[in-house]
Amino acid sequence: MRRPLSLALTPLIALAAALATTPASAAMTATVSVVHGIPKTPVNVFVNGKDLLPDFQPGTVAGPLSLPPGTYHIAVFPAADTAGTGTPVITATENLTAGENASLVAHLTSAGAPTLTAYANDTSPVPAGQARIVVRHDAAAPAVDVRVNGHAAFTGLTNPGQVSALLPAGTVTADVVLAGTSTVVIGPATLNLQAGTETIVYAIGSATDKTLGLVTQTITGLGGAPVAVPAGSGGLAAPAAPATASWVWGLAAAGALLLFAGLFSTIRRTVRARG
Amino acid sequence: MFQRSSAPRRRPLRPTPGSAAVAGAALIAAALAAHAASDHPTQPPSLNPGVATSLAAQSPPTSAGRMSAATGRLSRPDRLAIASLGIGAPVVPIGVTANGALAIPSDIHTVGWYRYGPAPGALAGSVVIAGHVDSAGQGPGALFPLRAITVGAAVTVTTADGRAWHYRVIGRQEYPKAALPLSALFSPAGTSRLTLLTCGGPFNHHTGSYLDNLVVTAVPVP
Fold first, then answer.
1. Can you tell me the ipTM of this complex?
2. Is residue A259 within 8 Å of B28, Cβ to Cβ?
3. CATH superfamily of B51-220
4. CB spacing of B28 vs A255 below 8 angstroms
5. A186 has which bridge partners?
6. How much is the average pLDDT of A25-29?
7. Which residues 6+ apart lie within 8 Å of A79 measured at CB?
8. Average predicted confidence (pLDDT) for chain B
9. Contact by Cβ (8 Å): B58, B191
């Protein structure tokens, strides 16, 4: 699921144009969301030499952006470096393919160094009435367990790993604890999981700096339909069965009478001929 | 007269015993054929076939973001009325059963709104209301008259906040259950529309279920 560093961001120029007019067909473009998971560090995100996300704030999500397939060179600079001429915080290169849905996350490694991780998002349909939840560990923190409604739903998650599950739609309470302990390091947070959506929760920040937190991204329109519509058991609305039966039986009776009369007369004539 | 003079030379006009037997057998055969055909009767003509699915593919006039924002503050359907058919029924929110089928209210006089889909007033997608056509124990249901719907018929959905949402029927189609385009009918995307679902078509007395689903598609009246 996780892809090597480097994601393709964008001709966000095209992006602005795309958003302003008709959205391009999903099959022809890539869909990209950008997540800022490095605390206290507003940045400018340069893509192919253009500052496409100026003053991008920590703990926020940009997009989703519809981008043409291709190779994108990304450089992240501190917000003060508006020209992008200094030393970048992160650089990466990413190839985007048509139809893919990706999230590009600027975050800290488990050791606390800035990095970029590209995740391929699972946009497969979810069953009717359910929601998908995805948790991604993008924090400078050790292995963690994720608890949902008090139960350890995911255990031993490490940076930059991810886990996912399907849950019945509804509101859940989630928190993050150090793996194998009940020491809460993030949360609890209330998540409203709507049917047919995917909620992606990013654990970001640094345990050492006490800046751990959550950022969420939602993908909609994944709702599966019911598998059947069982809407009747009486048979009363079936097309004209009783009416058909009555005239059918009348026809059959008339036929039987004629057949009987014909046979009887034939027999009688035969008998008479013999007599 | 010519006819009169020639008549005595002709055979009597009454059917011969043999031809009566043949005719009788033919009638019985016809009756049997008709009886067999009644198990798969000719369907009433579908009105605007394909409209239910084609609408799902059309882009809504607004972005998905605005759609969900609108959905968030919309009220759930509370009552369905189709005056031309004498249909008036309470509406309750429904989901799916454990096996994923639409959980239509067991009370056949109540219809259900698919609560995981759009509500009336949503800027895109299919508002789905479904009800039993009948039941073996309760007789005809709220949507029993629906198969007689005509294009242009007015449908009103009243939501719990008291607002009335007016729709106009643009299509009526019966699908064999195995061919029901569920994804399109329940899609939260595409043209804003109301989809009414019930059962229809021939009835299988062995399984106690209908072979078809009746789909009525309506669009908001501006």
1. 0.72
2. yes
3. Sortase (2.40.260.10)
4. yes
5. A176
6. 69
7. A41, A42, A43, A44, A54, A55, A56
8. 79
9. yes
Phi-psi category of B19—alpha, beta or left, where left has phi over 0 and alpha has psi -120 to 50?
A: alpha
Give the pair of three-digit tokens for residue A123: 């946009």
pLDDT value at residue A3: 46
What percent of chain A has pLDDT above 70?
77
User: Which residue is closest to B17 within chain A, CA to CA?
Assistant: A262
Under 8 Å between Cβ of A18 and A84: no
- Cα gap A202→A204, rounded to integer Å: 6
Cβ distance of B31 and A255 shorter than 8 Å: yes
User: Given this structure, which CATH class describes domain A124-223?
Assistant: mainly beta
In chain A, DSSP finds a helix count (H) and a strand count (E) of 2, 17
Give the count of Cβ contacts less than 8 A between chain A and B: 204
Domain ranges of chain B: 2-38, 51-220
Is a pLDDT exceeding 60 seen at residue B4?
no
Collapsing DSSP to helix, strand or coil, A14 comes out as helix
| Cα–Cα dist A231/B214, whole Å | 9
* A66 token code pair: 């519809």
- Name the β-bridge partners of A203: A137, A214
Query: Rg (Cα) of chain B, in Å, rounded?
Result: 25
- Statement: residue B64 has pLDDT above 80: no
The per-residue pLDDT for A224 is 81
A207 alpha carbon, distance to own chain's centre: 29
Tokens representing A159 are: 């940076």
Residues from chain B that touch A167, judged by Cβ atoms under 8 A, are none
The first and second tokens of residue A136, run together, are: 């991604």
Is the peptide bond between B220 and the residue preceding it cis, with omega within 30 degrees of 0?
no
What distance in Å separates the CA atoms of residue A130 and residue A197, rounded to the nearest whole number?
A: 8
Lowest mean pLDDT among A218-227, B83-92, B97-106, B112-121: A218-227
Classify A1-121 by CATH class. mainly beta
Residues paired with A102 in a beta bridge:
A32, A120
In angstroms, the Cα distances linking B89 to B82, B136, B195, B220 are 9, 19, 16, 19
Report the pLDDT value the prediction gives residue A26, as an integer from 0 to 100. 52
Res. B26 pLDDT band, cuts 50 70 90: low
B33: contact with A, CB 8 A cutoff: no
The model's confidence at residue A231, banded by pLDDT at 50, 70 and 90, is: confident
Give the per-residue pLDDT at B177: 92
Residues of B in contact with A248 (CB under 8 A): 31, 34-35, 38
Helix segments in chain A, DSSP class H: 12-20, 241-274
Residues B211-222 have a mean pLDDT of 95
Structure tokens that stand for B34 in this block:
């008709």
